[in-house]
Amino acid sequence: MRKLSMIIWSFIAMSVVGLMLFSAAARTADAQMPGASQDSTPREPKQKPHSNHIPKHGGVFFMALDNIHHLEGVLLQSGIFRVYLYDEYTRPLSAAKVKQASGTVQVGESADAPRIPLVVGKNVQTLECALGKDLILPVTLTVSLHLPGSAPNARPEVFSFPFSHFIAEDAPSRPPASMDHSGHNMSGIKMDH
């Protein structure tokens, strides 16, 4: 019995030493990789592109056809329509990238509705326009948008944002209803914006 006990303890000790050597080798390999962190803080697991389609401001969320950009539209009680622009990892675009974007908003879905220009917002990481406090809900806002990196002569992408009520300025993020590019609810989840 004593011999079996010694064999088990030897196996455990060799396993622990092997694990320590493997961990040290992995840390050394990570440190030698270009762009690897040199500090000892644990790194976040890498997020895959397009793995997070949860609106960050309680609005209507889309992925653009360029397979890079995401956008979220929020209609505030003040009558301001705000568009948040994100990259493929759902990180907000820089102010410089937002300045490269341009677009217009039409109230309703008529091609003849007046086009209201989107301008860089007060926080410089959004585009927005004033639609007025007398907006009648429910409403669909049609956005024609040139995203950063679009060719100067490219046609804008068109997004339809359906709203049944205003969104609070500090609305929390929430799981999205899946929307196709035209704003049609594809998930069966009841829309509550």
Give the key terms.
193 residues, disordered C terminus, Immunoglobulin-like, alpha+beta
Please name the CATH architecture of the largest domain: Sandwich
Tally of DSSP β-strands: 8
Task: Kindly name the structural category.
Answer: alpha+beta
How many helices? The count is 2
Query: Class of the largest domain in CATH?
Result: Mainly Beta
Helix fraction, binned, reads 10-25%
Order of helices and strands: HEEEHEEEEE
CATH third-level topology of the largest domain: Immunoglobulin-like
Write up what this structure looks like.
It is a single chain. By secondary structure, this protein is an alpha+beta fold. β1 and β2 (70-75) form a beta hairpin. The chain is globular and about 90 Å long. It folds into two domains: 1-33; 60-163, Immunoglobulin-like (Sandwich), CATH 2.60.40. It is 19% helix and 25% strand. Strands 1-2-3-6-5-4-7-8 form an eight-stranded antiparallel sheet.
Short description:
This protein is α+β, with helices and mostly antiparallel strands and 193 residues long. It contains 2 helices and 8 strands; from the N terminus they run H-E-E-E-H-E-E-E-E-E. The longest helix has 31 residues, at 2-32.
Element layout with pairings:
Layout: H1 2-32, E1 60-63, E2 70-75, E3 80-86, H2 95-100, E4 102-107, E5 116-120, E6 126-130, E7 139-146, E8 157-163
Antiparallel strand pairs: 1-2, 2-3, 3-6, 4-5, 4-7, 5-6, 7-8
